[in-house]
Design a protein that fits this description.
3 copies of one chain form a homotrimer.
Chain A: H1 19-36, E1 50-55, H2 60-72, E2 76-81, H3 93-103, E3 107-112, H4 117-128, E4 133-139, H5 145-159, E5 173-177, H6 184-193, E6 199-203, H7 211-216, E7 226-229, H8 232-236, E8 241-244, H9 249-253, H10 260-267, H11 271-274, E9 282-284, H12 297-300, H13 308-327
Helix pairs in contact in A: 1-5, 1-13, 2-13, 3-4, 5-6, 5-13
Pathway (chains A, B, C): Pyrimidine metabolism; UMP biosynthesis via de novo pathway; (S)-dihydroorotate from bicarbonate: step 2/3
Protein name (chains A, B, C): Aspartate carbamoyltransferase
Keywords (chains A, B, C): Pyrimidine biosynthesis, Transferase
Chain lengths: 331, 331, 331
């Protein structure tokens, strides 16, 4: 397995991750999964360091996951939540970040509804010549790298629990189904999965497929094993993994989609449709799930098919790995 | 004193608590009260464990009390607050609980405005075969067991500080006054107090008395030393303890009660009315108090009569006891 | 340097601080700045103690600063935020404070939009005869002592990093510019700076200058080296430090000021205006800054002139010093 010395200060997206970097994260996360199975569940790796969670877009589950990851590395955490913040007093986002830097933050986990905000903050920090690390926890419809990595960790761990690695996906077929156009999760997953030798098949309503991809049509993209479908069936055919995406209900009202029921009829994953896939197919969803929309409710709770709760568990180990890799050598 | 080996995974209400279980909680809380009087105030009992506070109904004081209790047992805490949550994104409550389970929560402290939510979550967890513990921190108008236990701890500690126990209440008369119909605090207290040999007298406006009890009228309930009054005076007569309940102002507007002033005139506890009680009578209130409504303002601050601040202090020790008893043996 | 044994239980304002007390805070903060430069960044000074942050007026940055300061002293923190609180249930502020006292709070950091609230709480605590300490984190337009102290620490550290002390300001000219009438930061700074041998010059629109001072006119106040100006230039002339104040935009709408642009034209600090000052002049701002209003945007980011980020950094060390001084001897 090709792991590498970690040199990346910020984790803003998976688009430029090297295979060796993917493997380093996977292997580090596997080590932390072992730590989490011990009695104390903590390591002193980041003692004295401060992780600031700057969530300009609210999210309890992702913030909780990062918070727990940080504490299990013995870091201190500071939480900034939009709404109760001085943003309402007219401060810019960059100034908020600089304030937390000056307070002593060693790492900042940033979520914002606009794409590129974590990048802008990272660029500013680089220019200031400071050693703080920025971790993108979701920026608009752009990327959500820790979600992409935890999905990768979840499926590779299923194949080899001890040594999860990119190479395990060679020859696997992975379907990504749903609102790909608006999904930062899909984007991050496309980058990680196409770095392996897996075949990635995207399926969703034409209105919801990325415009970029739509121009190319139903053909493989150059250099990436990626295929595009406007119907569900060809994507599911013999799939090893089906990644469903959260349907943003607010898109419904803007008439991009007719109704939740109609969406479920065309693109919802059901037991019947699963028969198209490999017999041991597994389903993923980044959560929170709209029950009975993206996945039928009984399937979602069926441990034979659903990896949803493993994804959440993987999240803590993967986020520990990211914070650890970015934070080591800081002291 | 009859203490017992603790076998209860969840604490959802006091209705089925055995006398031995009450005594075990009281005695464990007394031990933690001693810990709280030491310099460090902490014990490593729950090191590595995660207590998730899932407050679907907001409450700063109860959440703070649980949070402090958890930290003093060296547990890590995660806070979920409705409003900033993905519930607004359509996730079900059960899915939220399962997410925190998958993240690694060992215990969940749950408050919800609907009765039965903690029970539904506990049932789901049992069915999943996982070892997580659910603690009801108030469900609708149903139960609030930690409040019932801290009230019990407060009054039994007053009689014997070293060995608080149910048996100390034999022959005591305890009045519960106010909006019993809508009070989960009253319900939990009725279960704990009638497990002792105390006499429990309920008094409140007819509109606010439980319909169940109203059918029975002013007579003792079978097997429980409980008495019902539509007027305050017979309940207060020779009482050792007077438990007042918080008046939900929102009930006023729905015309269940005429006015705050009228409520105070009929059911407010004043110095004058206290003369009906035993000379060393004590007053309790679960807080937050509407000053001058349930209790006259000066009486509330009089340490000779008021146990209100002791109740809050008891809360931390009792919640440490509950978390400890449910959490031990998990590692 | 005259440091002193600390005897002050509460820190409510700087109006009655003695020079020796200022120097004790400055010297203690300098020690903690050293701690913050070590690997672990923590000291066990307040182990077992509880710092309750009661922010009745929301503020993420100040709360985060106090929270980090408390944790680095190994204290536990509890956060109360208005809005999600039982205040909406009608509880008085004093009762909220007494609840946190009863829960075990050793110190309370209090912010409220009404002047005098922390003082009222401190008076109540004194009357109860309890050892809890109250720290004013901003009360209306009255005082914000930790901000005044961190400003003092920032400018004295610039003159002598090892031994910051009041005496270093002798002969220095300090301008305070802006909405002095509504500024608790200005008030606290006036008390600290006029305790030194510095000359303090206030400048702001006539409508925004304190009415008290306006009665006296453009002359020095008796016993305090303080001067009043209705125009910026005489205040800036040969100044060593320029303290700008946050302009409360909500004042704009109440017609106390014509427009942000007009304010900037008359009282905004620009490179051009800075030429009036000493060549090595430094600018301060308590944050959050309205970019381009109080200070021109480029100047704010220029490390040659701006002390804004040092102020934030100083904040953690100064708040550690305050919590430490008030909290020592409590165990």
């Amino acid at each position: 397995m090709a792991t590498t010395v970690w040199t990346r200060r910020h984790v803003l997206g998976l688009a430029d991750f090297t295979p060796a970097e993917f493997d380093t994260v996977l292997q580090t996360a596997a080590s932390f999964r072992e730590v989490l199975s011990t009695r104390t569940k903590k390591v002193p790796a980041l003692q004295g360091q401060v992780v600031a969670n700057l969530f300009f877009e609210p999210s309890t589950r992702t913030r909780s996951s990062f918070e727990l990851a940080a504490r299990r590395l013995s870091a201190d955490t500071l939480n900034f939540a939009a709404g109760t913040s001085s943003l309402t007093k007219g401060e810019t986002i960059l100034d908020t970040a600089k304030t937390y830097l000056a307070m002593g933050a060693d790492m900042m986990v940033i979520r914002h509804r606009e794409a590129g905000v974590p990048h802008a903050i990272a660029a500013e920090m680089n220019q200031l010549g400071v050693r703080v690390s920025i971790l993108n926890a979701g920026d608009g419809q752009h990327e959500h790298p820790s979600q992409g990595l935890l999905d990768l960790f979840t499926i590779t761990s299923l194949i080899d629990f001890e040594y999860p690695r990119l190479g395990l996906l060679a020859g696997k077929k992975i379907a990504i189904v749903g609102d790909i156009l608006h999904s930062r999760v899909a984007r991050s997953n496309i980058w990680s999965l196409t770095s392996s030798k897996a075949e990635v098949h995207l399926a969703g309503p034409p209105t919801l497929l990325p415009k970029l991809l739509a121009q190319i049509g139903d053909s493989s993209l150059p250099n990436r094993n990626i295929f595009l479908h406007w119907e569900l069936e060809p994507a599911l055919k013999d799939a090893d993994f089906v990644m469903t995406l959260r349907l943003q209900k607010e898109r419904m009202t803007s008439h991009l989609l007719p109704s939740l029921r109609e969406y479920h009829q065309h693109f919802g994953i059901t037991r019947d449709r699963l028969k198209l896939c490999k017999p041991d197919v597994k389903i993923l969803h980044p959560g929170p799930v709209n029950r009975g929309v993206e996945v039928s409710s009984d399937l979602m709770d069926d441990p034979e098919f659903s990896l949803i709760s493993q994804q959440v568990t993987s999240g803590v180990a993967v986020r520990m790995a990211l914070l650890y890799l970015m934070g080591s050598g800081k002291n």
